[in-house]
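RECORD TYPE: protein structure
NAME: Short-chain dehydrogenase
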Amino acid sequence: MSRPAIVVVGAGPGVSGSVARRFAEEGYDVALLGQDQAVIDDLVPGLEARGATVDRAVVDVTDEQAARDAVRRFGEHAGRIDVLHFNPSAFREKDPLALTVSELLEDLALGVGALLTVVQAARPSMSSGGRITVTGSMAADDPWEGAASLGVQKAGVRNLVHSLDKTLAPDGIRAVSVTVRGALSREGAFTPDRVAEAIWSAAARDEDGWTSEVSYAG
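PREDICTED:
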């Protein structure tokens, strides 16, 4: 059988890069989807050193057709998608009185809408046992008003994960949002590697007692 494969959407140097490395350590091949060629290229050597075959594409995930095409190509090339990890969100430092409707909708297109795009594209390559994981945030429950759209994104994407999980569960595919209840840091409980470990653990659970949200509090 071919090796399992993970697609990391919103690939970058933080949590998403750590997630890619964590799954590579477990024998997964990795497909990286992101906006910055140099950032993606920087991730590749560390993944290959862990034995992973790496595919990559530079795509704006709010471009629905381009994102769909990239994810479908990943699935066709690997012959399977076992895990789809979704990481993107937009940080816009505006409070609710300064934030415009068009800005809010633009941010939601990235932080929520793009999840629909990539899941729908990945679904034909996913089978029973497949997992969808999302980097969640405490901003969903306790938003900072100075970046009001971020809390709306994180609340929205968590809600969408609940719906995806219910929709896909009859086919044995489960979805989970991992709510990170702390600020990312270079040391301590909230390093990208520690958060990635929590995401790995959430994805690796058995279906018995499955929940579509897991909190990581360090």
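COMMENT: The longest strand covers residues 131-137.
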